[in-house]
Input
Amino acid sequence: MGAIMLDLAIFISGRGSNMSAIIDACKNSGFPARVSVVISNKPDAKGLEIAAAEGIPTQVVDHKLYSSKPEFEEALHEVVSAYSVDLICLAGFMRILGVGFIQKWPDQIINIHPSLLPEYKGLHTHQRVIEDGKDKTGCTVHYVVPEVDAGQTLVQKVVSVLPDDTEETLGARVLEQEHEAYPEAIDLIAQKLSKRVAG
Ligand code: GRF
Output
């Protein structure tokens, strides 16, 4: 039996540095995934240019062109379904997916969040961590469930908060760890699925 190879869709809204980390990981022989498509809800997302320069198909599903969330998500589902996709990786995708979309992709959507979930769900995590005087933070790759930032954790990386840290310096060190964590999480899912197929 051949090793499992996961076909990925990556959803972005902006610069796409986590997307780039995943694309780079996929270049390593032996990494069990390849990127089928990158989809952005923002037509001007920087990550779209980066993906296109890598020869990866890109698509825009602009949420502003739809009058309701279900219509937007129906369009998103249609676009992603046109590709071979086993796993959807949310990488700085700034829309909250509804239960209707999530149920169409059971256990097939993962997200990265810049905190040690369940702590610091939501936005502005680094600023809140510093304000609270925490000495540790990090990032979490987790399954996506209808409750925001709440699905089962796949990978966490811990980052120390330094006395002089600003939101920017802390965010930069957490981001470095995000770029390690996301490929690890994809690898972990591939290993789990291989075991299931073998067993
Ligand atoms: C990352 O910090 C990620 O954890 C959060 O949004 C940011 C996206 O950055 N969900 P990038 O677009 O991957 O560079």
